[in-house]
Structures are given as structure tokens and as C-alpha cells.
Design brief:
Blueprint (H helix, E strand, L loop, with lengths): L4 H11 L6 E4 L7 E2 L3 E2 L9 E2 L3 E5 L4 E7 L17 E5 L11 E4 L4 E3 L2 E3 L8 E2 L10 E3 L7 H9 L4 E5 L3 E7 L14 H11 L3 E8 L3 H10 L4 E5 L10 H7 L3 E5 L3 E2 L5 E4 L5 E5 L3 H19 L8 E3 L10 E9 L2 E4 L9 H4 L3 E5 L6 E5 L3
Parallel strand pairs: 6-7, 14-15, 14-16, 16-20, 18-22
Antiparallel strand pairs: 1-13, 2-13, 3-12, 4-11, 5-7, 5-8, 6-10, 9-10, 17-19, 19-20, 21-25, 22-23, 22-24, 24-25
Helix pairs in contact: 1-6
Bound molecules: ligand LQZAQKY5 and molybdate ion.
Ligand LQZAQKY5 binds next to helix 3 and helix 6.
Length: 376
């Protein structure tokens, strides 16, 4: 089932069923989306406290200073202002306020004379009331919000230690090719070192990558034991004697979602669903083709598994190199006068894409190109 480039991208996205929610420690949820609203577990602030270093005062001034409270002291301190007494308690910012506090007089505005203090206060000034920002059971953020460091801070402040999030999809990467190495006649592995960055950029977590010797039995064993939502196989996607991906998936009865894409490079990209629900992406061994295939089938799959919207790509009208029948993916630099092709864009090349701002997705028929962002 060879699809057009946009069709393949959409089919990959549609094939992914969003992962169910997981409860993660707040710090591990960074970058993920809340699967359930953030509900406050406590009051914020937890008790009435001072917003300034100064004096908690009760009754009309001047006030008699009756003690001092620092932040972090457990338990209530003695009330002030009982029966209309003009009393003050020295307080640090964040310290629990004594019952009866009218307002807090900051040190800078206070005149101290022995055990008396005086100054002008405004009713309720510099007082932070228990629960004024959040109360237990209050919904603070809706499901769908991305967990930023600020969300982590809010969750921590209201006593939430675990968040229900849509987890990052697990990716396993099987890198094939007995020719890979840096000895004589060998080819240096360019894809394995790039995969952790590609996967992280696309929102997955990668275990590995794992090198797999050429041979159907080894690939089969590695595929069967890969614990992942998406298994990415690099190389072995073509029709040579050591190209086992497609025959193996056929033998396993995997359901094809994308089996080849009418684009250059990346024509051998594919995506299949195994009977156990795992998805398998084929990335051709040529490194630029592998990146194109990753962007065409693997990244949309990861977006779908994360329950994200499929990214909408901008269109751009420009004279860019075209292929006679297939969509062409061209590394471009974005300039004020439009995208400029950088060359070095054959299937096994990397210099173009290494200096590109984006890939222009150029249809064969001369209609406007799309701009595919690149992993950063
Ligand atoms: N008879 C045909 N031959 C080829 C076809 C075809 O349709 N018919 N398609 C060509 C296209 S297009 C591509 S792309 C490649 C895909 O090949 P495979 O996915 O089977 O990968 P290999 O044969 O293992 O390697 C191809 C090429 O890439 C180099 N390679 C492999 N892995 C890596 C890596 N991790 N890092 C760097 N380079 C890698 C490998 O040495 C080969 O040069 O097939 C064409 N042939
Ligand atoms: O799969 Mo190949 O990428 O068309 O160069």
C-alpha cells in the first residue's frame, strides 16, 4: 500500500491509539499532558501568614509587642488583640499569623520604641489568607494541559505528589547492518546515534538503540522481545538478500498501515501493526532517507500515541527542486525571500539536512510545498 507523503503521514497518525493514563511522580511528568485535572490536595497558603517581614497588629496603634514568629514554626501562636487590646507580634514573611491580626506593618514603615511599635496600617494589608489561591478539592488545571516546570511548582505547592498524565510512548530501536562499524570497508553508524534525539524530539522515550545482526532469525527475536509501543527498525527495508523487514512482517501477519511512500528519499518507509498491538516502523538504511521516514511515519505515530493533535504544516510557494513523479523532501534554509535549497540531499547524504532549518515537502505537480520542521 504505497501512499502519497501526506496520506502516509495521516495514516500513521490515525493508526496510533492514544495511550491510557499513568500516574507518575510529579517530577517525571514534565513535558507530558495531564490526563485528568489537577486537583488541589491542600489549602494554598496552608495557613494565614505574613507577606512581609514586620509586625502583625491588632487593635488601634501604637501596639505593644508581645512576641515573635518565624516561618516554619509548627502550631498556632498566641492570639493578639483579645478584648480590643492594641498588640503586635513580630513576624517574618511566611510566618503563621496570630489570630486577631488586622494587618501586617512592614519593618520599613514601623517605628519601634522599646516594647511599643507604631505606624500607619491599611486594613488587611500584607496578609496572605489560608486557601486564598487554592482550596482542597479545587480544580486548578484541566486535563490536556502540558506539565511545565510551573505546573510542577503548583502541584508541589498544593501537596500533589503524583500526576495522571498521558505517558511518553516507549520506543525500541533495532539498528540492522553487519557492515556498520569504523573498521576497513565498514560504514559508520549515523542513524543509531541520531535516534535518541529524534525520538525525544517526537515525544517518545527510547530504550537502546539495539544493534541487531543481519539475519531473519536475529531480527525476529529482537522484534519479538522489544517491549515498546513503537518499534523502529533501521535498514533491511529493501529487496536485497539481507533485507528482512518486509518478509518478516508478512510472515508475522502484521497489518500494513503504510507500505512504501511516493516520496524521495524515504520511499521504503513503512508502518505495520502487530497482532499484539505494537506498531513497527521501517526506516531505510540510507541516513537522510531514515530521517524522512522517521518524520513521515514514526513522528506522527508518536503524536497519536501521546494523544496530541497532528502538527499542521505551513505551506510555502517557492521554486524548489522537484521529482518527476514523487514528492521530494529538500533540506532548506529559511530566508526573508523564502526557502533556499541547500543541496546534499540524496538518500545517503547528511550535510544538507545538518544545516537546514526545515525540509520543504515539494509535490511533483508544482503545487505549493509544505514545511516540515526538523528535530532539534
Ligand atoms: N534493488 C533495489 N535496491 C534498492 C532499492 C530498491 O528499491 N531496489 N531502494 C534503495 C533505497 S531507496 C534505499 S533508501 C535503500 C534502503 O536500503 P535498506 O533499508 O535495505 O538498508 P541497507 O541496505 O542496510 O542500507 C542501505 C545503505 O544505507 C547504509 N546504512 C545502513 N544503515 C546505516 C546506518 N545505521 N548508518 C549509516 N548508514 C547506514 C548502508 O551501508 C547502505 O549504504 O536501498 C536502495 N536499494
Ligand atoms: O527509501 Mo530510499 O529513501 O527512497 O532513498
Amino acid at each position: 500500500m504505497v501512499l502519497g507523503w501526506e496520506e502516509a503521514r495521516q495514516a500513521a497518525y490515525d493508526a496510533a491509539v492514544p495511550l491510557g493514563p499513568a500516574a507518575l511522580p510529579v517530577g517525571d511528568a514534565l513535558g507530558l499532558r495531564l490526563a485528568a485535572p489537577l486537583i488541589s490536595a491542600d489549602d494554598l497558603p496552608r495557613f494565614d501568614n505574613a507577606a512581609m517581614d514586620g509586625y502583625a497588629v491588632a487593635g488601634p496603634g501604637p501596639w505593644r509587642v508581645v512576641g515573635r514568629s518565624l516561618a516554619g514554626e509548627p502550631g498556632d501562636c498566641a492570639a493578639i488583640g483579645a478584648a480590643g487590646a492594641a498588640e503586635a507580634r513580630e513576624v517574618a514573611t511566611g510566618a503563621r499569623l496570630p489570630q486577631g491580626t488586622r494587618s501586617v506593618l512592614p519593618h520599613e514603615e514601623a517605628q519601634r520604641d522599646g516594647d511599643l511599635v507604631s505606624g500607619r496600617v491599611e486594613e488587611g494589608r500584607h496578609v496572605r489568607l489560608r486557601g486564598e489561591e487554592a482550596m482542597p478539592g479545587e480544580k486548578l488545571l484541566p486535563a490536556g494541559v502540558v506539565v511545565t516546570p510551573q505546573v510542577v511548582a503548583l502541584a508541589a505547592a498544593v501537596g500533589v505528589t503524583e500526576l495522571s498524565v498521558t505517558p511518553a510512548p516507549r520506543v525500541a530501536a533495532l539498528v540492522t547492518g553487519d557492515e556498520l562499524g569504523d573498521g576497513p570497508g565498514q560504514v559508520r553508524d549515523a542513524i543509531g546515534p541520531a535516534l535518541p534525539g529524534w525520538v525525544r524530539w517526537a515525544g517518545g522515550t527510547l530504550a537502546g538503540p539495539q544493534r541487531v545482526p543481519d539475519g531473519a532469525a536475529d531480527l525476529r527475536a529482537a522484534l519479538m522481545s522489544a517491549q515498546a509501543d513503537l518499534v523502529v527498525i533501521t535498514g533491511s527495508s529493501s529487496v536485497g538478500p539481507e533485507d528482512h523487514v518486509r518478509p518478516l512482517l508478512a510472515e508475522l501477519g502484521a497489518q500494513p498501515v503504510v507500505d512504501g511512500v511516493a516520496c524521495r528519499p524515504g520511499s521504503l518507509a513503512g508502518l505495520w501493526r502487530l497482532a499484539d498491538g505494537r506498531l513497527v516502523a521501517a526506516l531505510p538504511g540510507n541516513p537522510f532517507a531514515a530521517l524522512v521516514a522517521f518524520l513521515t511515519v514514526a513522528a506522527p505515530t508518536l503524536a497519536g500515541l501521546r494523544g496530541e493533535e497532528q502538527a499542521v504544516l505551513a505551506t510555502v510557494g517557492a521554486e524548489l527542486p522537484r521529482h518527476r513523479s514523487d514528492t521530494r523532501l529538500v533540506p532548506v534554509r529559511l530566508t526573508e525571500s523564502g526557502p533556499v535549497a541547500l543541496g546534499h540531499d540524496r538518500s545517503g547524504m547528511l550535510r544538507g539536512v545538518a544545516q537546514a532549518d526545515a525540509l520543504a515537502v515539494v509535490p511533483a505537480d508544482g503545487t505549493p510545498a509544505l514545511l516540515q520542521p526538523l528535530p532539534t
